[in-house]
Amino acid sequence: MLRAIAAVACVLLAAPAHAEGEPVSAGAHREVRAGSGAFYVQDAHLNAVSELRGFPRADMSVGYKPDAVDGRLTLELGYFGTQQSNTDYSKFETSIQLNTFSAGAKYGFFNRRWLSVYGRGALSFSASSLQIRDPAATDMIGQWAYTFGAQAAAGAEFLMTLHSGGEDQASRTQFGLYVEGGYHQDFNQARFNSVKPNASGDDKPTRIAFAPVNAGSLGLSGPFWRLGVLLRF
Question: Domains in the chain, ordered, with CATH?
Fold first, then answer.
């Protein structure tokens, strides 16, 4: 298996490089990505919500590659979502959900016909939800928290041309696989300082008065990896 991977890598690296001064991909292109991976939160307070530090994540993004900077720059809008749950002290069920939206750019440092190595940076906005429920009760308490952050990553794309627009490659369509690793840093912590019963839409008054609970703060920063597929057209 390792020999086969090494042989494929040798073929990719041996592919002829673009001639000096020749654009990596002439003409503007659009890009769609979808993938999955894992996000590892470093804050020890996560133990109150989950026994695992690794959050499975689902990713998707759209990009636009302008006919500039030698075709190496791609502007991106992205989203990733993740959720983790746990049963605390064999009684309470807790879960945390994270939805992150990002806007940034990707730059290809090393480009060959079937291989691209790139760096990516983005600013992000996250909406996080903490939910706590007693299985013996019908109501759930929870709160949303909002954070801002940034991401930095490096990755590689393995590309296959589906359609070539001729020598200028202006209408080239490519399908590929990508693998990426990086770090997500939040600028502020997610503050769950007013956890209270979720609104149910029921007009009946609450039978017992409930004061909001301060469940503390959680830093949602940490390394991540992802892999998936892309279509560039």
Answer: 27-198 (2.40.160)
